[in-house]
Amino acid sequence: MKLLVRNLRISLLKEMPLERALEKKLDVAETALQNIKIVRKAVDARKKENIFLNFHVQVELDAPKKILQRLLENKDVEQIKSEPPVEPKFGAEKLTAPPLIIGAGPAGLYAALELAQYGYKPILVERGKPVAERVRDVEVFWETGDFNPASNCQFGEGGAGTFSDGKLTTRVNDPVMGSILQTFVNCGAPENILYEHKPHVGTDRLRSMVANLSQKIRDFGGQVLYNSQVTGFEVEGNTLTKVVLNNSEKFAVGAVILACGHSARDTYEVLHNMGVAMETKNFAIGLRIEHPQDLIDKAQYGSFAGHHLLGAADYMLTYNDDNLKRSCYSFCMCPGGQVVAAASEQGGVVVNGMSNFHRDSGVANAALVVNVTGDDFGHNPLDGVQFQRKYEQLAFQLGGKNYCAPAQNLDTFLRGAEPSVDGLLSPSYRPGVVASRLSEALPDYVVKTLRLAINNFDRKIKGFGDGGALLTGVEPRTSAPLRILRNRENYVSISHANLYPSGEGAGYAGGIMSAALDGYHVARAVMGRYAVNE
Predict the structure, then answer these.
(1) Which residues have a Cβ under 8 Å from the Cβ of 69 and sit 6 or more positions away?
(2) Which of 222, 400, 420, 487 is the most buried (most CB within 10 A)?
(3) Apex CA 470: angle with CA 513 and CA 361, to 5°?
């Protein structure tokens, strides 16, 4: 019988093999246990003097019926019944051209893969370069400040997530998640993402995974076109008939999946000008904070900091101020990572966080961001873009107009004193930082909320408020500043009959996994409407 066993707890004070812990929990002979597989692994550090690893495992048990009946009475044990994958339903409407997917981020890649493996021969167009060429361009930018507006941390194969921590966590509970993770593993992601409570790939592993996903699309009969920016559409009535690439080449289109990413501002303008239904969306803006990783490890794990079974510690912090009616929270926390230059437009500075799979840089960084709404920036769909751009350009000015970033240590930021970057660690941002008053690069209400929040966070994580911690700005690209409206039932635009908004850029996802999941569901919606290409 195949069983799922939950809450298999192993104390770091009394380390033991997983097999031994399972044998003790079930009270059976070790020889009865076969094909043990970890389903979930989490760290329970609520009691820092006795930290536990908590496992859920799948196991095949060869035991008498009486023992099996006893085990199934345990609330932590249940029998696993295999369920076949859900096959798509295919529609009857004829496609006038292969499905076109705009953007090779997680949503676009997964939508293209899903369509390709069922014979639809999709065409995936990406404004940037293949991931290997893109990495070289980004490294040149970080080293020299030579910025390429078509190939950077936002644009290119893999999307914005390629230069990140590669987190694969999501709050969305969907049975498809397991198959998406398995696809990622098949494309080169580490197998532990299948069971870690907070799985991550790291930017180094993510790059090869992305390239392999693209190759799978081609293997199934799809096309991937790089350096192909969508610059316009031709429309008849409310139906897209052609897409214009690079202001010259035109493609006939049937279904169009729009997965452009949250930084494709020129694409937003094209869509808005042609009357695609969209609305403003709340987002957040703030700064990156850096601490020595061992400071965070000790605060989170106490004497177990540095334990070989724990790795680099992370954190998640929130602060709400009823008087200001603002919230501040940590975002995209990168253990053992670095702060990166993530601009996508000339004349703007944008920061983000990134880490490799092993998270071994010795530096912990996270965004500290404050919520903003249409009441702050306006209710026209493109007003949020202008709001972001304003503060990116201010940061560019403060940094010296060469893509260096404004920065200051926490002490001078909290006191409003003459800025300094002296402190606990050297800045990790490249091409460099300039000591600046970060209060000049953000709205006053954001600065005020950040100062209150940091004092609050210091009470939650010992040493968080050390004045030597470093702040670098600005981070305005936490999510899309607008939403491209679609019907809930069939995922199609409410204004254009064959346009399918998808992913983070359309306002329907918040990370790699939720974007890939949205791409999957949008692709299934396309299949449910249209017949397979002949």
Answers:
(1) none
(2) 222
(3) 55
Give the integer Cα–Cα distance in Å for 235 and 275: 11
> Residues 6 or more apart from 75 whose CB is under 8 A from it?
none
CB 256 within 8 A of CB 235: no
Cα–Cα distance for residue pair 126/101, rounded to 1 Å? 9
Residue 147, φ and ψ in degrees, nearest 5: -95, 135
> Contact at 8 Å (CB) between 245 and 435?
no
Q: What is the pLDDT of residue 84?
A: 82
* Residue 88 one-letter amino acid: P
Give, for 290, the enclosing helix (H) or strand (E): strand 283-292
> pLDDT tens-digit profile of 492-518?
999 999 999 999 999 999 999 999 999
Whole-angstrom CA distances from 245 to 226, 229, 272, 323, 505 are 11, 5, 18, 49, 19
C-alpha to C-alpha distances, 217 to 99, 113, 119, 271, 419, nearest whole angstrom: 13, 5, 11, 27, 50
Is the link from the previous residue into 431 a cis peptide, with omega within 30 of 0?
A: yes
How far is residue 365 from each of residues 28, 135, 420, measured CA to CA in Å?
45, 21, 18
Please choose, from the candidates 8, 6, 41, the residue with its C-alpha nearest in 3D space to the C-alpha of residue 23: 8
Whole-angstrom distance, CA of residue 301 vs CA of residue 310:
9
Question: In whole angstroms, what is the distance from residue 338 CA to residue 470 CA?
Answer: 12
Pairing of strands 433-435, 363-372: unpaired
Radius of gyration of the chain (CA): 25
User: Rounded to whole angstroms, how far apart are CA atoms 526 and 113?
Assistant: 13
DSSP designation for 518:
H
Q: How far is CA 16 from CA 8, 12, 160, 202, 308, in A?
A: 12, 9, 40, 28, 14
Residue 287: both structure tokens together: 């700064």
**Average pLDDT along the chain:** 96
Contact status, residue 240 vs residue 256, Cβ threshold 8 Å: yes
The sign one gets for the Cα dihedral 202, 204, 207, 213 is negative
Residue 156: both structure tokens together: 């290119």
Whether 408 contacts 374, CB under 8 Å: no
Q: Bridge partners of 486?
A: 493
Spatial separation of the C-alpha atoms in residues 473 and 413, rounded to whole Å: 12
**Nearest alpha carbon to residue 284 among 160, 446, 154:** 446
Q: How far from each other are the two terminal CA atoms of the chain, in whole angstroms? A: 45
Structure tokens at 236: 């008849």
Per DSSP bridges, beta strands 283-292 and 499-501 are unpaired
Residue 54 token pair: 């908590």
Instruction: Tell me the per-residue pLDDT of 201-246, one tens digit each, with 9 for 90 and over.
Output: 999 999 999 999 999 999 999 999 999 999 999 999 999 999 999 9
Give the alpha-carbon dihedral of 153, 224, 517, 238, to 10 degrees: 100
